[in-house]
Amino acid sequence: MGPPPDPPISTSFTRSTSVLDKNLQSLKMGQQSRLYKSRPHIYVDRHKQELKKKLEATKDALFKLAQQKRGFKSGRKDFDSYLDYSYMLDNSEKKARFTSPSMIDLRAEYASNEEKVRARRNSDTLNREQWLEKKLEIAQKMLNGPRPFQAWSPSLDDLRLRQRSKDNIIDQRLRPRRLPLPSSLPPEDELKVDSLFKQSGVVSKFAREQVSDKDLVRLMPGSWLNDEIINFYGALILGRSDDSKENGDNAIVNGVASPKKSKILNVHYFTTFFWQKLTRDGYEKGRLAKWTKKVDLFSKDIVLMPVNHNNTHWTAAAINFRQKRIESYDSMFLDRSAVFKVLRNYLDAEHCNKKKTPFDFTGWEDYVLKDTPQQENGYDCGVFTCQFLESLSRGEETFNFSQDDIPYLRRRMAWEIGHSRLRTDP
Prior knowledge:
9% strand, hydrolase, two-stranded antiparallel ribbon, single chain, protease, 9 strands, Papain-like_cys_pep_sf, Adenoviral Proteinase, Chain, five-stranded mixed beta sheet, 2 domains, Cysteine proteinase
């Protein structure tokens, strides 16, 4: 006889053991997969609404001060874009970004990803609310602060009678009266511009530049200009200068012939990529001597170039040999001391390369025009830059346009690019 058989296992005990194992397993899985989320404070929505109201109140106060102090004519929507653009420029990276061969519109990047913007800032950078409050405080101090001491002077009537005749004569000699810009092109040209915006593919070619429909659409209201538009316009300026030298045509300065019948200036234009090459690689590493291999830069009246600041803002710069000036024109009127330093170093390196001697800066100055036209939004800097360059190529010392003229100038530029020539009417 063998060993006695094992006692039968209770079915109820087996069932209870399996249920216990399943409960333990599900409990472990639940602990591993459970994610605890922190609940927002019960007053967080109210706090956000209060901050939003405070932010809007600050913007309203700044808008009223801008209208009162600066004569700001644009609407509140444009003013908000101007504040956002100014805030972005103040907090832009110190090191330049070269993300693509063509300037991209970074407004969407700054608007859609606030966390990415904050990651770029320095630790001591003000947030948007603090920045607006600081701007408001500065503006109020300037407006309400004590007026400067008035020195003794003759009465206003005496000065007017004494100087009126002399001033009129001097003004006519230095700045002949210029015609105001129109509000629109002639009707047939307006129709032509509308048809240009409807074209597809390559719209126009000139010299080595070309503009496609995707580029031309940037001349419609509310868009930033890219390298293609600005370089095409610069090529037109350079082409007009070359034609003027060959044909001996007299200049028409803003619709008024110069009393001395001076010609269009002898201009050299550097493309938007020149500044990028100069600031990123330097004169030697960037091999910039080859850029002027067939050009004697020092025989020109003026050298013009658009400047792209950190891929966020356009300004115009010039080396004016006639006036012995390094010039910078900025529609946001920010500090551009770095522009003067870079161009002085370039001018000296170019002279050493071509003339084998250092450049003589005796009598030269860094020049900023106090009455430079200013933009009133966050997207017209490229148009201002093109118009600065075009006016400088005609020997203008001042500019006869403002923010009010930009809608007309955008359509005028579209017509000029579509016809590959600059207009001679105002």
